[in-house]
């Protein structure tokens, strides 16, 4: 399996706080999930890959090209799209304007029309403001905004956060289809069901490092690992 | 006090408001996207007026180019101010994005330098453009009779600027980028947009509007040293009253301040400036974010 995105020994500090302490990971054609408790540095890793925070040590390579230090807009244009935690809609833009903002000219797999076919709810609400949507609709719009950039890889930071279970099922479907079409998917999740339904491999982050990587099935069965790394409790 | 007099004073207020709107909308646009309080906005007004006049003067003197002199001066004044604005953004302000105090201090410094340089190059004599024949002289207005054609044109131009800005912000991709940048600059960059380039475009536009104001203002009234400070302060007051970063708010602020200034001068000339500040204090007390401003 060839590496699409390769992160090597990445360090990020916020003042005295050493948040990423040497992250190394490889994303290939298969989707990869990254799980971990609150505050372990998952979002910081996403931001460091996007150049939205500065990483002073280590490297991030997309198809061999170094991405560090080139700034978020160039990272995006090289083919890395982010669906950020909390979705970060633009309150001043309508649904349709969110799509126009990122739509490219020319022949691409993802077009505004295809987004509306895939997510009919967005078509119905095309004139609504980004903040007038339900959580699920906002998430679909955040994903559409990333897909319309027709990236090589898409990074999703906790897309299931705050969504109703039936919407989460729909989300899992969507993510599987995206991955099946050959787009690289790095999925950050706290919801284990989403992570293990979308990818066969799960990386676990503990205090700024990838502590271990295991198969989704293995993690599904290993209650002890779930408790230790994720604080998931069973029983009741 | 006759009705005719009251309408004339109000109309004078509206023509002044039109000029204020043209200048302050540029100020508001720059503030809205970049959070830069551009204390050199008045200097951009001066640059528009001075460069425009240096182009206008020789053209107006020659009978062959006399007819076009004013229009070419408008283009030259707008272009000069826009170029100066781009230089300011690229050389000084771009890399200190987000450091508001530093930007304010740097632009104050720049405004002092620009005023001195203009004085050194062009001298300190007041000057005034002559409106082109088409806009020269009076027009008959119902009730009040003869009224300056150029001042009426000023109102029309402000309307055109307002509508143009509305279309630009609401109907073009650049406008979508600008509004998204006001919401979340970093996310806009993560969408692949070259945000510094958008900033330069907005700065050119905002500065160009100051330059346009410079030529228009110097056609209505002679320009002398010190108008840069006057227009900077007026722009500040207008956007504080109307709401920072809102074009509609800028229009309302400009109308309130322009009309209040003219009525103030008509009723109590010595203390007229107090009216302006009374409006500002009242707005700040009741709606600190300005009449159409958003909180947060
Ligand atoms: N800009 C910042 N400045 C200082 N500290 C920060 C900054 N951003 C994040 N941190 C800190 O870095 C740590 C990791 O944060 P991060 O958001 O990456 O965690 P996370 O794994 O995404 O958590 P969650 O699951 O809650 O989203 C936290 O302790 C956070 O407080
Ligand atoms: Mg996070």
Automatic annotation (TrEMBL), chain A:
Protein keywords: Amino-acid transport, ATP-binding, Nucleotide-binding, Transport
Entry-linked InterPro entries: AAA+_ATPase, ABC_transporter-like_ATP-bd, ABC_transporter-like_CS, BCAA_Transport_ATP-bd_LivF, P-loop_NTPase
Domain of life the protein comes from: Bacteria
SMART domains on file: AAA (SM00382)
Signal peptide location: none
Limits of the ABC transporter domain: 5-232
SUPFAM superfamilies, A to Z: P-loop containing nucleoside triphosphate hydrolases
BP-aspect Gene Ontology terms: L-amino acid transport
GO terms, molecular function: ATP binding; ATP hydrolysis activity; branched-chain amino acid transmembrane transporter activity
CDD domains in the cross-refs: ABC_TM1139_LivF_branched
Stored PROSITE patterns: ABC_TRANSPORTER_1, ABC_TRANSPORTER_2
Keyword ATP-binding: yes
Keyword ATP-binding: yes
Family, per entry: Belongs to the ABC transporter superfamily.
Protein name as annotated: ABC transporter ATP-binding protein
Organism: Aquibium carbonis
